[in-house]
Amino acid sequence: MRNIAKTCAILFLSLSSVLPSVAVAAPPVNGLGSLAKKHSARPFLQTKGFAMAPMGFVRLCMEQPRECEAPAVYQKVVNADANTLETLKRVNSLVNRQITPVNDDMRNDVLGDRWTASATAGDCEDYALAKRRMLIAEGISPAALRIAVGYTRRGVGHATLIVRTKRGDVVLDNRFDTLRLWNRTDVRWVSIQSSDDPRIWERL
């Protein structure tokens, strides 16, 4: 497992109202079968109404509107067979190695954080966008791919790609090459994109 040591602050208007308390991170797992059965009572993230989108995401939609289009394929849940899981693991690991970790929020930019799906160096949301784009190219339904933001156990803002599979919501994190279910990470989730329209965000 490759662990990328970096920080990733998220410019999110309503984030300050959420306390950065989080659960202890679970150990990485190889595969999701037994893990999904053990936590079958809550395999999916539950949304609680609309939320403000991160400002970096709003800027992305203005500059690269194609990244924010509503999906033409509305398959909201993908299979969790061996081939699909292998694709998720391969893309997660590949992008984790292709992008050089840089805290993009530290740049002197009056408009704040810049999100992009084609970065060669960037922070957590850039990894998530690159993975989303690559998985769509691999044939994974866009409606099953959503970016979520929250806090790590250190209180640092973080973004990951969430893939909704039939075994649960799987996290593709730039800090880990392993796949983890949403409730087996150290992230306290704050909000996530809607599967109907990626421009809409919902509270978690």
Explained architecture:
The chain has a single domain, classed as C8orf32 fold, CATH 3.10.620. Helix content is 23%, strand content 19%. The chain has helices at residues 33-38, 55-63, 82-98, 124-137; strands at 50-51, 100-101, 121-122, 145-151, 157-165, 168-172, 180-181, 188-193, 201-203. The radius of gyration is 15 Å and the shape is globular.
User: Radius of gyration from the CA trace?
Assistant: 15 Å
CATH architecture descriptor name: Roll
CATH topology group = C8orf32 fold
Coarse structural class:
alpha+beta
Globally, the shape reads globular
Please describe the topology of this protein.
Blueprint (H helix, E strand, L loop, with lengths): L32 H6 L11 E2 L3 H9 L18 H17 L1 E2 L19 E2 L1 H14 L7 E7 L5 E9 L2 E5 L7 E2 L6 E6 L7 E3 L1
Parallel strand pairs: 2-3
Antiparallel strand pairs: 1-9, 4-5, 4-8, 5-6, 6-7, 8-9
In short:
The chain is of the alpha+beta class and 204 residues long. It contains four helices and nine strands; from the N terminus they run αβααββαββββββ. It is globular, with a radius of gyration of 15 Å.
Q: Which short descriptors sum up this protein?
A:
C8orf32 fold, alpha+beta, 4 helices
